[in-house]
Write a structure and sequence with these properties.
Elements (H helix, E strand, L loop, with lengths): L2 H25 L5 E5 L2 E5 L4 H21 L7
Antiparallel strand pairs: 1-2
């Protein structure tokens, strides 16, 4: 793995950890969902939490696949 690939793997891993942190935070939260881009924020009722969580889980799976392609695997 070269430096460029290592940097990409590190960035992917950070994103995966951010998603994991979000999912852990929302497990017990009953508040509304906020999604923001720059200064624009959109609010969703809590009833959409599962859909947001599912979308993030799909994104996480894609990031894990990218890591696997770089040769980074989860030790079991």
């Amino acid at each position: 793995m070269n430096y460029e690939e290592l940097q990409k793997a590190t960035d992917l891993f950070k994103k995966i950890k951010e998603i994991d942190f979000y999912l852990k935070m929302t497990e017990t939260s009953f508040s509304n969902i906020e999604i923001s881009v720059n200064s624009h924020v959109i609010f969703f009722d809590n009833k959409y939490k599962q859909k947001v969580d599912d979308a993030l889980k799909r994104i996480k799976n894609e990031l894990v696949e990218e890591l696997n392609k770089l040769g980074v695997v989860e030790e079991k």
